[in-house]
Amino acid sequence: MREWMPDRLSLDGANRRRSPRFGCSGLANIVCLPSDGALLRGTIRNLSVGGCFIETGLLLPCGAQTEILARVEASSFRALAQVRAVLGRSGMCVEFVRLSSGGEDMLAELVRHLAKMRAIASAMGSAKLLEHPLDVMGETFPILRSFGPVQISEVPPPVLKPGSVVDAGALINPLDLFV
């Protein structure tokens, strides 16, 4: 089995990946082709339009042809894939060789979604420098612009005793989400 460098750099230091991968968590059902009926299960750890990394207890050799049913978030697609690299004893990198046109569209949309989530997470990481983190989120989710900085009331909440009756209207703060 060939060991694979996690960052997928060639010996000269050049990145050989054709498309960016995005961290995710999904499930994979893997059948080695030609099939003998054995089914491997694994966890998808990153995904791109060209392939993914799958953690699994049983590794296939480099070059093995597989059929993969992948489920990430609310999407699922089926792909014919080839094992391109094995990472230690934990998982394998597979390249998607063929997908149906519907599968290609679904994978492309899923990767766009993961890229957007990465951008939001990155923006939220830099939001620590901003006065209020919702300033960044307001660009993606305009409705959040209506929320201002949290103001803490000087009045302590009422102490409730078992069996006491409380006017629920007194505990509710109105919030207008439609601006």
List keywords for this structure.
179 residues, alpha+beta, six-stranded antiparallel beta barrel, 3 helices, 21% helix, extended, disordered N terminus
Topology:
Elements: E1 22-33, E2 40-47, E3 51-56, E4 65-72, E5 75-87, E6 91-99, H1 101-126, H2 134-140, H3 168-171
Antiparallel strand pairs: 1-2, 1-4, 2-3, 3-6, 4-5, 5-6
Taken as a percent bin, the fraction of beta residues is 25-35%
Inertia-based shape: extended
Q: List unreliable stretches of 5+ residues.
A: 1-15, 129-136
Our measurement of the CA-to-CA distance between the termini, rounded to an integer number of angstroms, reads 60 Å
Q: Could you state the oligomeric state of the chains shown? A: single chain
Helix fraction by DSSP (H/I, runs of at least 4): 10-25%
- Which structural class fits the helix and strand makeup? alpha+beta
Number of helices: 3
Number of strands: 6
Q: What string gives the helices and strands in order? A: EEEEEEHHH
Q: Tell me the strand order in the biggest sheet.
A: 1-2-3-6-5-4
The mean pLDDT is 75
**Gyration radius, in Å:** 24 Å
Largest sheet: 6 strands, antiparallel, barrel
